């Protein structure tokens, strides 16, 4: 019996040690899981990213060619190489967060050279039916086809070869930042003022007509009643008229678009009870609001001036569509600007008004 007791006691001790060891391992694993990743370790070193880094620094194309041979879409058909997904996502995130219509418009990815939008300009006919009476024929909808061509947007940042040879220099992050900055500025201007020739068609390119005479193919406007300014008395009435000039189905998702100088003038306005129409966002990243509707600051909108349509209000998700190809290409050129290396980056993007009833303008004019 003593032998059995000793064996049982030893078994219990071993089980206790085993349990304590397992608890220690689990605690270690949980502690490591809660540790923040180092900045350098946060970037996933995929084969594509590694090959792209070698190409950008030294022009070595073997890695990217090898990926092409394995069926990965790393080499563009018309010159240059597709950047790795991390760099592409960085550029895309910057463009989305920039002061641009892209932030409130509908953005679609396409693989073709254009994108077609079908807009129903009239509601499909409907009516009430009884159990015995014949149901009459309803009116046919008016469908409008809008084709948005894609145009090539390019940037040409440059760096010295000595800087590229520095291992501490993050060439992918630098390139993504420079490309995103140039693309964001070019896009923002085109979405507002583009003439549609080798660039997107901007909102303000279309004719602006008085709201009472509005027709498809133009944008309706509401006048402030004063040339180049708001009215001296009840200035906020123009903002109210602009909001309610938009149809109710669009107004639910409405937002204002204006530049910073115009916003500086508008945010001083008060209603009849002395309350400011403008309210700042309560949380970081939340937009300011005017009459309860979000405000998007686009610096390419015109300043308040005689006859200027300096404020737009509408459902831009319905009213403006941005179409783009998801790929971003880079071509390394070490010869054209020696001793610097040029990086020719291109992407295809287009934009156009997709519903002329969804956007209204405030014109600083008598009528």
Query: How many domains?
Result: 2
- Element-level helix/strand string: HHHEHEEEEEHHEEHHEHEEEEHEEEE
The CATH homologous superfamily name of the largest domain equals: Major capsid protein gp5
Assigned CATH class of the largest domain: Alpha Beta
Mean pLDDT: 84
Spatial order of strands in the largest sheet:
7-8-17-13-9-12-11-10
Q: What radius of gyration results from the CA coordinates?
A: 30 Å
How many strands?
Answer: 17
The level of helicity is 25-40%
- The coarse silhouette is extended
Structural class: alpha+beta
Task: For the record, give the distance between the C-alpha atoms at the N and C termini, rounded to a whole number.
Answer: 110 Å
Which percent range describes the beta-strand content?
15-25%
Number of helices: 10
Largest sheet: 8 strands, mixed
| CATH architecture group name of the largest domain | 2-Layer Sandwich
CATH topology of the largest domain, by name, is: Major capsid protein gp5 fold
Poorly predicted runs are 35-42
Could you characterize the architecture of this molecule?
An eight-stranded mixed beta sheet has the order 7-8-17-13-9-12-11-10. Strands 1, 2, 5, 6, 14, 15 and 16 form a seven-stranded mixed beta sheet that branches. Strands 3-4 form a two-stranded antiparallel ribbon. Helices cover about 30% and strands about 25% of the residues. Residues about 35-40 have low confidence and may be disordered. The protein has about 375 residues and is α+β, with helices and mostly antiparallel strands. The protein is extended, with a radius of gyration of 30 Å. About 30% of the residues are buried. A hairpin with a 6-residue loop joins strand 15 and strand 16. It folds into two domains: about 45-120 and about 140-200 and about 325-355, 2-Layer Sandwich (Major capsid protein gp5 fold); about 205-320 and about 355-365, hypothetical protein PF0899 domain (hypothetical protein PF0899 fold, 2-Layer Sandwich), CATH 3.30.2320.10.
């Amino acid at each position: 019996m003593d032998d059995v007791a000793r064996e049982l006691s030893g078994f219990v001790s071993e089980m206790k040690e085993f349990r304590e060891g397992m608890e220690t391992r689990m605690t270690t694993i949980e502690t490591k899981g809660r540790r923040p990743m180092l900045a350098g370790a946060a970037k996933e070193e995929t084969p594509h990213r590694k090959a792209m880094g070698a190409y950008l620094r030294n022009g070595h194309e073997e890695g990217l060619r090898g990926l092409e041979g394995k069926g990965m879409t790393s080499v563009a058909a018309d010159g240059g190489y597709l950047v790795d997904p991390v760099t592409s996502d960085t550029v895309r995130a910057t463009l989305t967060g920039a002061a641009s219509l892209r932030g409130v418009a509908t953005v679609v990815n396409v693989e073709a050279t254009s994108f077609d939008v079908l807009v129903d300009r009239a509601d499909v006919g409907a009516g009430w039916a009884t159990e015995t009476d014949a149901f009459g024929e309803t009116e046919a909808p008016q469908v409008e086809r809008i084709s948005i061509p894609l145009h090539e947007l390019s940037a040409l940042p440059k760096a010295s070869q000595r800087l590229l040879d520095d291992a501490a220099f993050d060439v992918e992050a630098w390139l993504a930042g420079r490309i995103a900055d140039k693309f964001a500025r070019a896009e923002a201007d085109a979405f507002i003022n583009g003439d549609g020739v080798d660039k997107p068609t901007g909102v303000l390119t279309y004719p602006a007509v008085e709201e009472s005479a509005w027709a498809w193919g133009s944008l309706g406007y509401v006048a402030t009643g004063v040339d180049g300014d708001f009215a001296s008395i009840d200035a906020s009435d123009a903002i109210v008229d602009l909001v309610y000039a938009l149809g109710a189905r669009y107004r639910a998702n409405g937002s204002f678009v204006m530049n910073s100088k115009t916003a500086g003038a508008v945010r001083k306005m008060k209603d009849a009870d002395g309350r400011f129409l403008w309210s700042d966002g309560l949380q970081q990243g939340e937009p300011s609001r005017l009459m309860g509707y979000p405000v998007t600051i686009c610096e390419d909108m015109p300043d308040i001036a005689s006859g200027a349509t300096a404020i737009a209000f509408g459902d831009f998700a319905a009213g403006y569509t941005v179409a783009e190809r998801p790929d971003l290409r880079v071509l390394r050129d070490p010869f054209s600007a020696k001793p610097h290396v040029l990086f020719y980056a291109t992407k295809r993007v287009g934009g156009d008004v997709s519903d002329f009833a969804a956007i209204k303008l405030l014109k600083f004019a008598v009528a």
